[in-house]
Structures are given as C-alpha cells and as structure tokens.
Design goal:
This protein is an alpha+beta fold. It is built from seven helices and 17 strands. The protein has two domains: 2-215, Bira Bifunctional Protein, Domain 2 (BirA Bifunctional Protein, domain 2); 218-276, SH3 type barrels (Roll). The termini are far apart.
C-alpha cells in the first residue's frame, strides 16, 4: 500500500520505543525498494512534523538497497538488519563525515555484543571482522539527513560464496554461543546510535572521536591514502574528526579533511590485496 500524501509505502507495522531519540518510532516494512529511499521520502514532510526526527525505517528485505559509490546492497529476507534513521540536525551536526563516524562506532559497539572481540572500522563506512565485511553505512542528505546501516546477521559462508561475495561475513559466522536474532540486533543497533547522538547535538564529540579512532586502528600504521585529488603514502600520525595527519617520507606532515578522503588502506593490506589480484 502506498501513502497518497507522498510518504511512500505505508509501514506494515509501527513500533514505538518510548524514552529514546533514535528509533523512538520504527516503521517496519516486510520489503522495500530501499530503506534509505523511504526515509528520504519521509524527509520531505519533516518541516511540518518534527516527530519524524529519529524515526527508523527498517525492512525485512529490499530490492534496490544502495551502498557507497552507487554499489547495490542486497540481502535475503531477514538475513540482515536493514535500517535507515531520519535526522533533523543543524549544519555542523549533520556533517556526513561526523555522522558516518557516529554510525560506524554504534554499529561496531552493537556487533561487539555477540563477537569475541570488537570488529574493525574500515575507512570510511564499513565494519570488518576477521577480514570479512559484516556491515556497511551510507549517509545521504535530502530535506533532512538519512543514515542507513546494513548489518549481516544470519548468513553463512556458503551464502556469501554463492552470491560471489567471498569477503562477506555475518554475526552468525563468528558469534560466541547462540547466533543473535534479527530483532535483538536491530534493537541493539538503535540503542547504540541513541547513546552517542546527544553528544553530537551538544558538540561534545571527544568520546565518539576516541571510539572511532580506536575502531579504525590506523595510528602508527604505514598507509596509502586516497583523497579526491591525490594519492599519498605515509605513516598515520593523527586521526580526528577534523582531519587525518600523514607523515610522509620527506618528513612533511600533511593533513587531509575527512570529507576529502575516499579510502585509507594500511599499506600491508594494500600490498597483499594487490598481490592477490
């Protein structure tokens, strides 16, 4: 069923979560074209309905899910948590680099509840465990900001192999004890996102920045940095929400704003992948 007011498909279920900001209301759909696309449709009405801030759009499956750089995100029904959060924030708080870091830290924290150790954040928007991608993030802006997360929950190694995604991973593949259910992973993710959002609104991002830096695991690493206008090699000296500082062979310290960085590869990983190729 489609909402004639222009808000897109009507949710199959609306779930209320009192006492929180992120996901205070979940619009659940059995299937959608894309949770980000649906959240962007809702964003058109946010000026007249402030209660849309923090609404989470989630689906059991999606037909046209989007990833970074136009990639397609697909998943069998209920095998992944697919959720997009609609945010009405001021210009500084809605910086894509800041919100990508926020979502990455929250996704890492949520996944850690079931993994034997914390996964790694791969710049800029992926979560990896044991060399496999278990989650991805996409921030998009319309009349408001939408932060989408896809986290693999129940797929097996053979599922990824059949899909041609040999580097794909899921919580079920590495979970301590029983693998988590879809609903509890969604709840944990929204709770972790809710935990960090007030600090962003107050401009108190030091704790978030530390957690993001810890997750990236780049400090002191020789790395290949791909910016929008150049490629640079050097040792990562500093990582912050204002920039990454790279010390190059000539001793020069160069800072790159996060918004201009496409990828950062630890040099050992980059050389190994190049050799495999």
């Amino acid at each position: 069923m489609t909402d004639r007011s222009g808000g897109g498909p009507v949710p199959d279920q609306v779930i209320h979560r009192p006492g929180c900001q992120v996901g205070h209301r979940i619009h659940w759909h059995h299937t959608l074209d894309s949770t980000n696309e649906q959240a962007l449709r809702l964003a058109a009405g946010i000026a007249g309905d402030p209660g849309l801030h923090g609404v989470a759009v989630s689906a059991g499956g999606q037909s046209r899910g989007r990833g970074q750089h136009g990639r397609v995100w697909t998943a069998p029904p209920l095998s992944s948590v697919l959720v997009s959060v609609l945010l009405d924030l001021d210009q500084e708080a809605s910086r894509p680099a800041l919100l990508t870091a926020w979502a990455a830290v929250a996704t890492r924290e949520a996944a850690s509840r079931w993994l034997p150790e914390k996964p790694r954040i791969k710049w800029p928007n992926d979560i990896y465990f044991s060399g496999r991608k278990i989650a991805g993030i996409l921030v998009e802006k319309g009349r408001a900001t939408v932060v989408g997360v896809g986290m693999n929950v129940s797929q097996t190694e053979s599922d990824f192999a059949e899909a041609g995604l040999e580097t794909g991973g899921s919580l079920a593949m590495y979970a301590r004890g029983l693998a988590p259910g879809h609903a509890e992973v969604l709840e944990a993710l929204l709770d972790c996102m809710d935990q960090y959002l007030p600090a962003i609104q107050r401009r108190e991002t030091a704790e978030l920045e530390r957690a993001w830096r810890d997750g990236l695991q780049l400090i002191g690493q020789p790395a290949r940095l791909e910016a929008v206008d150049r490629v640079a090699l050097g040792v990562v000296e500093e990582v912050s929400l204002t920039g990454v500082v790279l010390v190059q062979d000539d001793g020069a310290r160069r800072q790159f704003p996060p918004e201009r960085i496409l990828r950062i590869h630890p040099l050992a990983d980059f050389l190994r992948d190049a050799t495999d190729w």
